[in-house]
Design brief:
7 strands; globular; 9 helices; 206 residues
């Protein structure tokens, strides 16, 4: 059964999201304060980065991130994907992105209900319009809350083709269950502790 039609699963998922987000905000508060101080000492204000992303049912919201790039980076280069050697990324930002700590403030978005822990990653508004034209069924991603992590993030490279990412997203939407959510969260924690985000590849399937 498609997870977006399973009311029991959705209720359990939402309650779990709220509990885990509140726990995370409490546990990681000291780390967040250290990150805030490090960003400020290196590059001053602002401390956070807000971007417009497309969420469930096409609603636009603003995920919160710790700023990992130089000030006004997108005003200089426009809205483009970051690369491993991107000169816009600060030295603190490189650490934050490798460990996904730049996305720690999105626990607030999860608690508010903008996002879930697991689901398709929310995409920029301009890219959504482009992908809706070029990728069949792309809009189906917006039938569920976007996620902090998901199978496309765990099993694919950051610069993998959008077609491959979409395939993982649609498979998740159609087959999602609570055990799969827990597995993806655990794998995401593992990648975080290994500082391996943007470098983790899916193992060969048998």
């Amino acid at each position: 059964m498609c997870c977006c039609n399973n009311k029991g699963y959705l209720l359990a998922k939402r309650l779990f999201d709220m509990f885990l987000a509140l726990l995370g905000l409490t546990v990681f508060l000291p780390i967040a304060l250290i990150i805030i101080l490090a960003i400020f000492l290196q590059d001053g204000l602002p401390l956070f980065f807000y971007d417009r992303r497309v969420g469930k049912n096409g609603r636009v919201f603003k995920p919160i991130k710790f700023r990992s790039m130089i000030k006004d980076a997108e005003k200089i280069t426009g809205s483009v994907y970051a690369e491993d050697s991107d000169a816009r990324i600060t030295s603190i930002g490189k650490i934050l992105r490798a460990t996904a700590m730049d996305e720690l403030p999105q626990l607030i978005n999860i608690f508010k209900g903008d996002m879930s822990f697991v689901g398709p990653r929310p995409e920029k508004l301009n890219y959504v319009e482009e992908f809706k034209e070029s990728l069949p069924n792309y809009n189906y991603r917006h039938s569920v809350r976007p996620g902090l992590t998901g199978p496309a993030q765990v099993y694919l490279k950051y610069d993998s083709p959008q077609e491959d990412k979409l395939r993982h997203d649609l498979e998740y939407i159609d087959k999602a269950n609570f055990c799969w959510d827990i597995l993806l969260i655990c794998k995401s924690f593992y990648i975080t502790f290994k500082a391996g985000w943007e470098k983790f590849e899916k193992p060969n399937s048998t």
